[in-house]
Design a protein that fits this description.
The protein has 268 residues and is an all-alpha fold. The protein contains 10 helices and no strands.
């Protein structure tokens, strides 16, 4: 098991590092592929949980949301895209003979697309994060690269499976209060250091850190809820020893909007 996990890490890390070095366009391409794979996994889990959908359309909508964020980083047409997707999903669901089934298909399709589409907020963070002042520790990075590093490292500092006082056992039996608190402390410390490296006031980490840690934890629990409903241990088998792609990005889906809100506040 340890060997397969190490092999998976070796396969995953180089493409991510290369994309980060190249810049935001390469990251957008990676995220579009991630949205495609995660969309297929999400709709497969929803089907296993008893929720039919227009899975191919929903996956295509999720990918389109990411591409829209890539090509129109400061545009305001995202809500229009979501509206059109919702209308088309509703029209497609009308083909179901039972209106109750059609309603489930409609809701499930839109939910799955928007859930996976949350990964597009990574691009929003990259494109709207404040510039890194000259002389800062991370001044060699572009603002997009620097803020993505903060998001990635912060989202990965979620609570580990340690401690005796469990919570949310109906969703994830291994989660503990000790792991949650430890993850929040680690996230806050890392966020303070990274903000300082980005040339921002480190005290902002005392706000962003806990919010980032809680949102990442919530994202992890949300995916666990989906897998529990589907009766599945992992979202897929794409990555040996790690499950599916959704198992690797679940925390980013909820953490991305939180960091995006923070950089929006800074820009304002």
């Amino acid at each position: 098991m340890l060997k397969t996990r190490a092999l998976s890490a070796l396969l995953l890390i180089p493409p991510l590092v290369i994309a980060l070095v190249i810049g935001v366009p390469a990251i957008a391409a990676v995220l579009a592929l991630v949205a495609l794979l995660a969309g297929l996994e999400v709709f497969r889990l929803l089907k296993a949980a008893g929720y039919p959908s227009l899975s191919l359309f929903g996956t295509a909508l999720a990918v389109t949301i990411v591409l829209e964020a890539a090509f129109r980083p400061t545009g305001d047409k995202g809500i229009l895209l979501v509206a059109v997707g919702t209308v088309l999903a509703g029209v497609g669901a009308m083909a179901r003979p039972d209106p109750r089934d059609g309603l489930v298909v409609w809701f499930t399709t839109v939910f799955g697309a928007l859930y996976v589409g949350l990964i597009a907020f990574v691009l929003y963070v990259a494109n709207t994060g404040p510039a890194i002042p000259a002389g800062s520790a991370f001044s060699a990075l572009s603002s997009g690269q620097g803020w993505i590093v903060l998001l990635v490292l912060g989202a990965y500092m979620v609570g580990r499976q340690i401690g005796r006082h469990k919570f949310m056992t109906h969703i994830s039996p291994a989660k503990s209060v000790e792991g949650l608190v430890g993850g929040l402390v680690a996230t806050t410390l890392v966020t303070c250091l990274l903000l300082a490296g980005l040339g921002q006031a480190w005290v902002g980490g005392l706000v962003l850190g806990p919010l980032l840690g809680l949102s990442a934890q919530a994202g992890d629990l949300a995916e666990s809820m989906l897998k529990r409903a589907a009766g599945s241990k992992d979202s897929g088998t794409l990555i040996p020893g790690h499950g599916g792609i959704l198992d690797r990005i679940d925390s980013f889906l909820f953490a991305g909007p939180v960091v995006a809100l923070y950089v929006l506040a800074l820009a304002g």
